[in-house]
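Can't attach files on this board, so I'm pasting raw text. These are the components:
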Amino acid sequence: MSAPSAKLSLSELPWLPRPPGNLRGLLAALPADPLQALSALQSLAQAGWGEAELRSIGRKLRGIAKSAPANFHSDARQQGLLPVRLLILSASTVSHLADALIATAMRFRVLLDVVVAEYEEPEPWLDRNRGALQQNPPDFVLVASDSRMLKLASPLDDAAAAEQMIDAALARISRIADVATAATARPIILQTLADDPDATRFNMDLGLPGTARFLTTEFNRRLARQARQGSRLVLDVNALANLVGLSAWSAGRYWYAAKYPFATVMIPLYADNIMRILASQMGRSRRVLVLDLDNTMWGGIVGDDGIEGLVLGSGSPLGEAHAALQRMALALKQRGIILCVSSKNDEAIALDAFRNHPEMVLKEDDIVAFRVNWEDKAANIKAIADAIDLGLDCFVFLDDNPAERKRVRDALPSVAVPELPEDPSDWLMVVQAAGYFEQAAFSNEDRLRAGFYKANALRAAQMERIGNHDDYLRSLGMRLSIAPFDGAGRKRITQLISKSNQFNLTTRRYSETEIAALQSDPDAITVQARLEDIFGDNGMISTVICRRTEQRWDVDSWIMSCRVLGRRVEEAILQHLVAEARGMGISEIIGRFIPTARNELVRDHYSRLGFVQTAADSGETVWRLAIEGYCDKDLPMTVDLRRVEEPA
Amino acid sequence: MDHASEKLSSSDAILARVQDIFRTELDDDALVVDLGTRQKDLSAWDSLAHIRLVSGLESEFDIQFSLTEIEQINSVKQFVDAIKQRG
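---
Top answer:
C-alpha cells for the assembled complex are below.
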C-alpha cells in the first residue's frame, strides 16, 4: 500500500505538476533573448505555482513584452502563442490579478494583455473610454461584478420586492454588457455572485425572499439563463466558491484592507477559470480524452488477473471508484468529448473485458479509437491524433502511473496530463476541477460528434475496399447543402469560427453578435455548408465570409472542419461562390492566407483552387481568381442551395 | 527553497527573505532594504504595494498578519519584528 496522500486543496490546482524549484532562481537563469525567455517561461508556467509566484512570472512576461522588438508578437504567434487583450471591469480591486492572469495565460498558449478598470462603477468608466475602446477594442470584456458592487438587499418575506431588486440588478448588468458590446463588439463575460460571507444565514434562508442567500441564488440562476439567451459568457464564481468553500474563498481581511473581492490564495483557480473560457472561445479547449486501462479504467491488470479478477463496480469501494471514473467519461462523451484508449495490453484480452465484464460502464462502441499494444504510449497517442485528425493540443491523457504520465508529458508537451492523487476515490474531484473540456455553448453538433468520428472510420474502411479515391468519393453519395448565414445556424457558425485552427485561412474570430451583424450587411457574402452522405450527416462543416468592394470579393474567412478533408468540398464551395459572383457582376475573388502555428494545411489552398498569387509579405500571401477564367468542374457530389427568404 | 528553521530566528536571515519579497513585489531586482527602511523612503511602496507585500510575506513565511498590523506597519523593521514574533 502506498502512503496516504496529503489532504487535497483544489485551490492549488493539484492536476498540474508541482513547481520544479525555487522560482527566484529559475527566473534569474532566464535566457536574454526575448523569444527564448518566452519559451522558458511558457514551460515554467505549466506548474502549479502559488499566487505570489504567478505574479512574478506575469511581471517578467510583461517586462519582456514591453522591451521586446517590434516583430515580437508575430514571432510569438509563430511559436503558437496567441496575443489576446482582456478588459476587466470591476468596482473592487482587481489590478493585483493582472500579472497572475498573464502567467496563467501562458499555460493556455496565450500572450495576454490585461486592461483594468477598477474601484469604479463600470458605467461611467465605459462612457469615458468609449472612443479609446472603439479604436483599440479588447478581445474580451470581463464584467467582474460582485455582491459588494450589486448590493442586493430587500425587505424580508416580500417576494415582489425581492423580484424587483433582482430585476434591477440584472438590468444593470445587461446595460453594462450592452454598453461594452456597443463599444467593442467583443464577447462579454459575466460573473455569478459568491454568497456574501458576512451575511446572516439561517438554514431556511434559501426559501425566504429578501435574505442574502435567496437574492444571490435567484440572481445567479437568472443571470446564467439570460446570458445563454443573449450569447454572453458566464464565469461561475459562485461555483468556484462552492468548490473550495465560501469561508476559504471570501476575502475577509483582504476586503477590509484593500477591497480585494476574494482571498488571494484563490487567484490561481480564478485565473485558470477565466483562461478556460477564453481558450474555449479561441478553439483551445480539449476535445479528446485518452484513457489508460489497467488500474485506471478498472482496478487490477487484466492480462494477469483475468476479467473475473478485475476490481470494478459494486462490491468493492475501489471498484466503485473506477466505475465512477467510467461514468465521468461517459458524461463527457455526451458533451461531445471523444473517448479513446491507450494501454499496454494484449488487444484481444482488453477488448474481451469491454465486451464481457458485466460492470463495464463504457462499451466498446463508446470508444472512437483503441491503441492497445506494447508500444510506447506517447507514440500511440500520436497515432490516435493522426487517425482521428485532431491536434495533440486537444488531448487529455489519464493514467494512474506517474512514470507514464511523465513520459507522455515530456514527449508530447501539448497533451494535458493531469497529476492524479494516490487514491482513485480522489481522482474525479481533481479531473473535474481541472476543467479541460470547458465549452461555452452546447450545439447539436456536440451531441453528435462521436458519431461523426465513428462514421469517418467506416468511410476509411470503404476507401480501403474501393482503392480508387475518385470512385470512393462517388460511392459516398455526398450531398452538400449551401446557404447564407441565418439565425438557426448562428451558434454552430460561431463555434466553427471560434474553434477551427487548421483549415482556417485567416484565423479571424468573430463573436455571435458580429456573425448576426453580417447577416444584414449588404456587402457581406456568407456561406454555411452542410454535408451528408450514405454514412450519415456530417453536420455543418464549412463557412466562408466574403466582403464586396465594387467588382471585387475579398475572402475574409474560409473555414472547414477537418472531418471532411479530401472530399472536394472546398472545390464545390468555390464553384458556388463563382456562380454567385457571376450573377452579381463580380470580376475577381481575392483570397488571403495568414499563417499561424496551426494552419500549414491550407498554405496552398488557393493555389490548388486555381488562384494566382499576387503578393507575399512575411509569410502572408494574397491570391486572385478571375471569374472569367473559371471553368466549372465535375464534382462527386450534388449541391442544394437553400436561400434565406428576404424579409418583407 | 528550504531555509533551515533554526536560522529563521536571526534578523539577518529574515531580512534577506524580506528583501527578496520587496524586490519581487515592488518590481525592482536591485532594491536594497534594511531595518532602517521606512515606507516613506520608497515611492513604489504605496497602499496597493503594501497589500502585495503583506500577501507575499504571508505566503513566504506561512503566517498571517493581523488587521491592526496590516494597517500600522510602515517600515521594514516592523515587518521583520512581526515575523520574528511568530518564529
